[in-house]
């Protein structure tokens, strides 16, 4: 019996090693499933609550502004797993009032950026102009005309000159160069800007006067308050 138990244990250990090695070789391409299920129950809240209770789910509520779509959570389903829950897939599939469902899985966000390696930088243009005698002064004229605007001539803000990303302080000229637009009278008045962030301090003196509560929302908590929480967690706010 001891020998059989040892063999069985070895088989289990080998299976686990094979699974782990398979994940490593695949570069973790398999999705990591969560204990949340998105379901579509067009008949409404009452039926969604009943279906959730029948199978041990908690109905967290409607998903954003998607009418009839709900997010269900199950405490006995692993919060992170490389395989989906067959049991709960079968249960939800058997519900006639559930027209669609999906067990949620982890989605990693990647910064999307683009930089054309064939496009010369500002410094390359500067070198090109300086290498030609008849164009030697063009770079200097450009700088004097567009980047030589003193910030204190526009705003009496002693800290404005420290905001290098707005005018004249970024490496190779990669700043917003916004002063010429301000000098022409473009102030942004009447323009509404939406920012997707991890939360904003709406009562901050720099934001409070222009903050629009009716145009703001917290996507994670499904409410209109984008203030960061004090418990260390983040809110996805717009």
UniProtKB/TrEMBL annotation:
Signal peptide range in chain numbering: 1-22
Regions of compositional bias (Polar residues) in chain numbering: 204-219
Coiled-coil annotated spans: none
PROSITE patterns: SUBTILASE, SUBTILASE_ASP
Source species: Graphocephala atropunctata
Keywords per UniProt: Cleavage on pair of basic residues, Disulfide bond, Glycoprotein, Hydrolase, Protease, Serine protease, Signal, Zymogen
One BP annotation, GO: protein processing
Descriptive protein name: Peptidase S8 pro-domain domain-containing protein
Domain Peptidase S8 pro-domain: 36-112
């Amino acid at each position: 019996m001891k020998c059989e138990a040892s063999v069985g244990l070895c088989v289990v250990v080998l299976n686990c090693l094979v699974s782990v090695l398979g994940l490593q070789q695949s570069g973790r391409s398999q999705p990591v499933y969560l204990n949340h299920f998105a379901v579509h129950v067009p008949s409404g809240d009452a039926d969604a609550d009943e279906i959730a209770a029948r199978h041990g789910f908690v109905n967290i509520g409607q998903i954003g502004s998607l009418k009839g779509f709900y997010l269900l959570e199950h405490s006995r389903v692993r919060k992170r797993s490389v395989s989906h829950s067959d049991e709960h897939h079968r249960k939800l599939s058997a519900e006639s009032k559930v027209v669609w469902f999906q067990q949620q899985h982890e989605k990693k966000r990647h910064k999307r950026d683009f930089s054309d390696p064939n496009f010369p930088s500002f410094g390359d243009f500067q070198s090109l102009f300086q290498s030609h005698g008849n164009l030697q002064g063009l770079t200097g004229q450009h700088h004097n005309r567009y980047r030589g605007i003193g910030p204190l001539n526009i705003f009496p803000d002693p800290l404005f000159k420290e905001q290098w990303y707005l005018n004249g302080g970024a490496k190779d000229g990669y700043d917003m160069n916004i002063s010429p637009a301000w000098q022409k009278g473009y102030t942004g008045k009447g323009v509404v800007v939406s920012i997707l962030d991890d939360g904003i301090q709406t009562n901050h003196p720099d934001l409070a006067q222009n903050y629009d509560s009716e145009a703001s929302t917290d996507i994670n908590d499904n409410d209109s308050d984008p203030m960061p929480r004090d418990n260390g967690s983040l809110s996805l706010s717009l």
